[in-house]
Structure formats: structure tokens, C-alpha cells
């Protein structure tokens, strides 16, 4: 469906493609899949801006849709200020070094579901293994459940 004010634009992947502006996003998704050899970056401010990856940083600085973000981001205390003015006042915060390290600290308590289920009257299932291994596992499980139901102590259950 064409809108009266809808104008035609040229596809960035194939200049032979002329698309109505209202259909451009749909077309770019399809055309990008076909022309995946072209290295294009998608603008953060407008998803219909597919620019060469080498020109991406320049485009981000000069994108006409960046104005919306700038107006919102740099409206401080009721007055509008430029990004440069806001950055001049920025003071980096020196944070203290972290007190914990996930790399050096060993795990405190780890949950082992196999160990826990061995002590409870639940039916366990072996996944994988050969047919004979699964059969042996089922037989061991039957003995384990019988021992649990008979109330045998832990050391006798393990030897059975």
C-alpha cells in the first residue's frame, strides 16, 4: 500500500532497486541476506541507514537522526547544552580495586544432583550408553530402590 507522500529511494545494496520509503526496512532485510558479501554497518539512530563499515564512525557523527538523541541527552537543568560542554564537566571516577575475584575464589557449595538423587527414592534414568549399559543401570536402580525401601544404612546400600 503506497502512501500519497511516499517517495522512492535507491537500495544501498543494489542501485537497480527502487523502493518506496515505507517499504525500505523490509527490503533491506531481504537484500542484506542476498548481498552478505558487502560489509555494511547499520546506524544506531536509524535502521534504514546501511553504510559501508569504513564510513560508519563518520556517519554516526553526522547522522541527521542523531539530533533526537542529542536533544534528549543534553537537556540539563532546564537548559539545552551541547555535548562538548557536558564532556568538559565530566570527571572520571576512580573506583577502588574489587575485593573479590571470581577467578581465584573457589566454589563454596556446588550442587550435585546425582549425589542427592542417590539418597532419595526417585527413579533415575540413564541417557546415552549402549543397550547393555542401560540394562545394567536399570538393574542397579532396582536394587538401590529396594535397599532404600528396606531402610538399609548408607554403607550397606553402597556395597549392594
Structure commentary:
The protein is 40% helix and 10% strand. The termini are far apart. The strands form 3 sheets. It has a two-stranded antiparallel ribbon. Strands 3-4 form a two-stranded antiparallel ribbon. A two-stranded antiparallel ribbon has the order 5-6. It folds into 3 domains: 7-37, no CATH class; 39-86, no CATH class; 117-159, no CATH class. Residues 156-160 have low confidence and may be disordered. With 160 residues, the chain is of the alpha+beta class.
Can you give me a brief rundown of this structure?
The protein has helices at residues 24-34, 56-62, 66-73, 83-88, 113-118, 131-150, 154-159; strands at 8-10, 18-20, 40-42, 50-52, 75-76, 79-80. With 160 residues, it is an alpha+beta fold.
Number of helices: 7
Largest sheet: 2 strands, antiparallel
Q: Nearest-angstrom radius of gyration? A: 32 Å
How do the SSEs run, as a string of H and E? EEHEEHHEEHHHH
Mean of all residue-level pLDDT scores: 81
What count of structural domains? 3
Q: Level of helix content? A: 40-55%
User: Largest beta sheet: what is the strand line-up?
Assistant: 1-2
The portion of residues forming beta strands comes to 5-15%
Class by helix and strand content?
alpha+beta
List the keywords:
single chain; 160 residues; alpha+beta; two-stranded antiparallel ribbon; 7 helices; elongated
